[in-house]
Amino acid sequence: MKKINKILVANRGEIALRVMRSAREMGIKTVAIYSEADRQALHVRFADEAVCVGPPASSASYLRAEVILETCKRLGVDAVHPGYGFLSENAGFAQMVEDAGITFIGPSPYAIELMGSKLAAKAAVAQYNIPMVPGTEGAISDVEEAKNIASQIGFPILIKASAGGGGKGMRVVENVAEFEEQMKLAVSEATSAFGDGSVFIEKYIGSPRHIEIQVLGDTHGNIVHLFERECSIQRRHQKVVEEAPSAVLTPELRAEMGRCAVDVAKACQYKGAGTVEFLLDENLNFYFLEMNTRLQVEHPVTEQITGLDLVKEQIKIAQGEPLSFSQEDLAIYGHALELRVYAEDPANNFLPDIGTLTTYKRPQGLGVRVDDGFEEGMEIPIYYDPMIAKLVTFGKDRQEAIEKMIRAIDEYQITGIETTLPFGKFVMEHEAFRSGKFDTKFIERYFKDPSVLKATPSQEEEELAAVLAALFAGQAKATTGTTPNAAPASGVSEWRRNRLK
Ligand code: ADP
Ligand code: ADP
Ligand code: MG
């Protein structure tokens, strides 16, 4: 066993904090890296040591593998946790870390590389009899040939970037007339976004649900699954609401999808935490989509229903410890929901709405977990993913988790920017969601008229609260000469002062 004493978290925001919290509980020292835009960030304050790695742009800071590695060596770091996004699925970075004799908390560079290409992944799992979406086996470059294949598969089809991720690099083609133009666009997008223009064709499944399976593998060849997460509520092919377990999986289907996910992990000798994604059609047939070789944004819902801390499991695996449980030891308790609170305007096509969190008050109470990286008065930087927080609720069953989510959304106070909170409430109150009869077309089908959000009481309440707060601030100023809640003159926040005491 190789005991880890000091971890550098090569990430920012909520996930950096979340990783550091588990490390600290394990008695492991933490190192934060940050860009010039993140000097005041919570992950920087939480860490035992923090190092600025460059200017705001990701390419000049969080993506600078060499600088990050130098920092590791200089500070005597013995392991790197990459979080999600940034360098987490960069096989070259994982290799550099390992070559320097430092532990990469994640799978092998080989597994990252293999699963990073959707096409290579499909080829690697072919021997395991795993159902796949009908489509091309390899990359296609000849337009005429591609057109023929698309016609054989039957429109609509999807052109996908093999190296794609984060919902980007996908184009739906409705008929043969649109094909050529869409393919050209897909190739050029894939080239500019992922540095790899390889595209392939998949049948476009009409109304699928997105169901994914969490897996854990150790370095002794043991692989288990931690059941499913349903992530069908999406905008731009990216998740907004997730839950575990899914409202539609039977124990048999769960076991079968779990078995397939474990086989996918076996195909790349997977170690660490990973996720195997599937689509599930109306007849409950499932198809392998891809594997994400990292901790997923929505991992907290799995933690809530299994009672496991996935980051601790990742660290223990990286130390060479065998899993302390087998598949039979694992069971689902209760139900968990997650709402990604993005700085986006749901009434305006979910466009990012960057600004300052003039009010920021988290909900609390039994069964409510908030993973975030901000506090009141902070700005949401324009340089990175606009996620403010993940609001997670946990109840004895789905109904209770939904009730808690509605209560927590109402309790959450954010002003200064638009967020996905009102959209989350719309979902929780919608009959299709409550009855479990929904799929990835939820937004398209039921959220055509976003003006419904404007009528929700929480928005009106917010406006009223803002007016009252302004009035109150005016009064307070007149009587005491100070503004309530203003930053102390020293410029050091209350939080920081408490810590420095
Ligand atoms: P998850 O699969 O964990 O639900 P998301 O699709 O929401 O993840 O992506 C997690 C983060 O990683 C986001 O910040 C997203 O922008 C980023 N991301 C994921 N894949 C890629 C990729 N291939 N290229 C660039 N960014 C990516
Ligand atoms: P990414 O790497 O961007 O996460 P995925 O292959 O995981 O790409 O797909 C993301 C989402 O796009 C899925 O959850 C689903 O909503 C949609 N999608 C992907 N492939 C298909 C398909 N063949 N048919 C219908 N929808 C699809
Ligand atoms: Mg995916």
From TrEMBL:
Residues 479-489 have a biased composition (Low complexity). It holds the Pfam family Biotin_carb_N. Transmembrane segments: none annotated. InterPro entries: Acetyl_CoA_COase_biotin_COase, ATP-grasp, BC-like_N, Biotin_carboxylase_complex, Biotin_carboxylation_dom, Biotin_COase_C, CPAse_ATP-bd, PreATP-grasp_dom_sf. GO terms for molecular function: ATP binding; ligase activity; metal ion binding. Residues 122-319 form the ATP-grasp domain. Residues 479-501 are annotated as: Disordered. Gene3D superfamilies: ATP-grasp fold, B domain (3.30.470.20). GO terms for biological process: malonyl-CoA biosynthetic process. It comes from the Bacteria. It comes from Rufibacter quisquiliarum. Signal peptide: none annotated. Keywords: ATP-binding, Biotin, Ligase, Magnesium, Metal-binding, Nucleotide-binding. Residues 3-448 form the Biotin carboxylation domain. The lineage of its organism: Bacteria, Pseudomonadati, Bacteroidota, Cytophagia, Cytophagales. This is Acetyl-CoA carboxylase biotin carboxylase subunit. PANTHER family: CARBOXYLASE:PYRUVATE/ACETYL-COA/PROPIONYL-COA CARBOXYLASE, METHYLCROTONOYL-COA CARBOXYLASE SUBUNIT ALPHA, MITOCHONDRIAL-RELATED.
